[in-house]
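User: Please predict the structure of the protein below. I'd like the answer in structure-token form so I can feed it into my own downstream comparison script.

Assistant: Understood. Taking the following sequence of 302 residues as input:
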Amino acid sequence: MRSGNAASILFGTPENFSEGRLDMFPIVHKRQLSEAVFEMGVEAPAVARKAKAGQFFMLRVAEGGERIPLTFSDWSAEEGWIRFIFMRVGKTTHQLSHLEAGDALADVVGPLGVPTHTEGLGRVAVVGGGVGAAVAYPVARAMAESGAQVTVILGARNADLIILEDEFRALPLRELIVVTDDGSAGEKGLVTAPLKRLCEAGEIDASMAMGPAIMMKFCAATTREFDVPCTVSLNPIMVDGTGMCGACRVTVGGETKFGCVDGPDFDGHAVDFEELMSRQRVYTDLERESDAEYSKECSCHL
């Protein structure tokens, strides 16, 4: 077995050897959901056996590459695969978007993080904005399977960016509400409008939001007005995913927490969203420059 990434060995490095070398993680499925959003499935039996709703994993596209966190959108313990959805926003996700079924990833480490609490709930609203729908899907499924009355609010800027709508409709939900900023699908407006209606009507006992930090901030503000608990799934900058580096620290209720080991779920009413969003922007320019250089390299080899 190769040495090096001890976490990979602990959390799911494959045990298949071929011609004296350790196999990587084969890609078994790829689907493009929109211009910049992709769904990918990877063979990772050890990870799939332990995955739970709300958890995430870390991957590397190739040896020496950046490690990035992604949340499970689906998995099969029996068939040994995990599935995730990502948006092409930087160099690593750009590289990932070029891979196809039959290619392989260097590392898949997980499951990481604390699973979402999905049992013993009554009436709950699950809000998924943009690619946050990928996080919301397994959570809503687990809640519904545990007997909760689940209303899902699915939002995006326009109809082309709505993802997993068919998958949500196949769940035993109380209701699915689709919202787009421009009104090209479902209601016109923001996800906070139907969330507020549910709160005003007393139709929910709790809520959960997954998506852009600014969306989660306003979902938390909306529910706070009605004393409806709001859990948010945070996506801070993350390096190792095991609590060692401190890059994912967030302030919750005036205390420092780590997104990777204390979360990713936190009380939305207690999160310092301004700090979270400020930290998320720290490497934006460097990420843009790195992606531009990679794009230039790609074009040179066409």
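That's the full token string. Residues 284-300 form the longest helix (17 residues).
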